[in-house]
């Protein structure tokens, strides 16, 4: 179907300006025309983008003769493709070679780097190892030199066992590269909680901040303090320690007036106002 002789149609065809070849089909083949148009577009693209001089041993001036005429002459285009296919086949081959070369170019190797921070812990305290590497995919291992001072578990936690210092060794490994860094592990003792200073002045059982006296009278006061303390007073006030009783004092005055006795105990200051009256 679709193939027939053109006998009897020669005058009509020639009159219309068609070229006539005996025994050839003159019915349009859409598939062939579609492929031909795609091939023309492909060749046009390379004709525009590539130089006209010798390129990869192919002379494009010779490869595309009378290119504009080819776009309108399907018959000559077919003949052209038959003659040029041996040149066009080099294009995909060269593309495959170029891609293979690019993929096999040597990659720049990253140098493995590692940093580790020192650790300070109290006895019985746990702390996380702090380390960093520029290659996250590296394998890391940890060890402690003196296991009597500190130990490390599989969660990368260091536990302090005894007061002292030891060495932590961190090793990173990646693609035949090895990086080793040491850190100092310091274990300190738990400091005892310091007792807050306390200073209280009493007369009998009552805490006082003021004392009333008359000239010649002696009043007994006591001081409660958990640290050593000192006191100072003006010359008109006499403070006497009670023999055999710690932190008890007899206070008296030589003349009327208002005076002070200042008690100090490790940054804590207490002031006792002494008011002396005449009777």
Q: How would you describe this protein?
A:
With 279 residues, the chain is α+β, with helices and mostly antiparallel strands. The N terminus is likely disordered. The strands form 6 sheets. The chain has a 5-stranded antiparallel beta sheet with strand order 13-12-15-18-17, with no helix packed on it. A 4-stranded mixed beta sheet has the order 4-11-10-7, with no helix packed on it. A 4-stranded mixed beta sheet has the order 14-20-19-16, with no helix packed on it. Helix 2 crosses helix 5. It contains 6 helices and 20 strands. Strand 1 and strand 2 form a beta hairpin. It has 3 domains: 82 residues, no CATH class; 75 residues, Immunoglobulins (Immunoglobulin-like), CATH 2.60.40; 79 residues, Immunoglobulin-like, CATH 2.60.40.1080.
Please render the helix and strand layout as text.
Elements (H helix, E strand, L loop, with lengths): L9 H6 L14 H20 L4 E2 L2 E2 H4 L3 H4 L3 H15 L1 H14 L10 E3 L2 E4 L3 E3 L2 E3 L5 E6 L5 E3 L4 E4 L3 E11 L2 E12 L10 E5 L2 E2 L2 E5 L3 E8 L4 E4 L3 E5 L6 E6 L3 E9 L2 E10 L2
Helix pairs in contact: 2-5
């Amino acid at each position: 179907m679709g193939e027939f002789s053109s006998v009897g149609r020669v005058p009509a065809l020639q009159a219309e300006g068609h070229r006539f070849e005996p025994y050839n089909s003159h019915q349009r083949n859409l598939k062939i025309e579609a492929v031909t148009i795609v091939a023309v577009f492909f060749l046009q693209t390379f004709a525009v983008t590539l130089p006209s001089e010798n390129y990869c041993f192919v002379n494009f001036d010779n490869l595309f003769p009378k290119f504009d005429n080819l776009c309108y002459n399907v018959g000559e285009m077919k003949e052209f493709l038959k003659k040029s296919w041996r040149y066009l086949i080099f294009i995909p081959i060269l593309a495959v070679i170029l891609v293979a070369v690019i993929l096999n170019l040597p990659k720049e190797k990253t140098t493995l780097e590692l940093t580790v921070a020192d650790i300070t812990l109290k006895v019985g305290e746990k702390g996380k190892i702090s380390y960093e590497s520029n290659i996250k995919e590296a394998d890391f291992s940890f060890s402690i030199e003196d296991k009597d001072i500190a130990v490390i578990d599989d969660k990368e936690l260091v536990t302090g066992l005894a007061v002292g210092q030891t060495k932590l060794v961190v090793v990173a490994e990646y693609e035949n590269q090895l990086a080793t860094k040491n850190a100092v592990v310091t274990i300190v003792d738990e400091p005892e909680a310091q007792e807050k200073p306390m200073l209280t002045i009493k007369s009998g059982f009552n805490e006082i901040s003021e004392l009333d006296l008359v000239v010649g009278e002696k009043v007994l006061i006591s001081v409660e303090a958990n640290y050593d303390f000192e006191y100072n007073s003006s010359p008109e006030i006499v403070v006497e320690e009670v023999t055999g009783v710690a932190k008890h004092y007899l206070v008296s005055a030589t003349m009327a007036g208002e005076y002070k006795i200042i008690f100090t105990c490790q940054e804590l200051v207490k002031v006792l106002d002494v008011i002396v009256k005449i009777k």
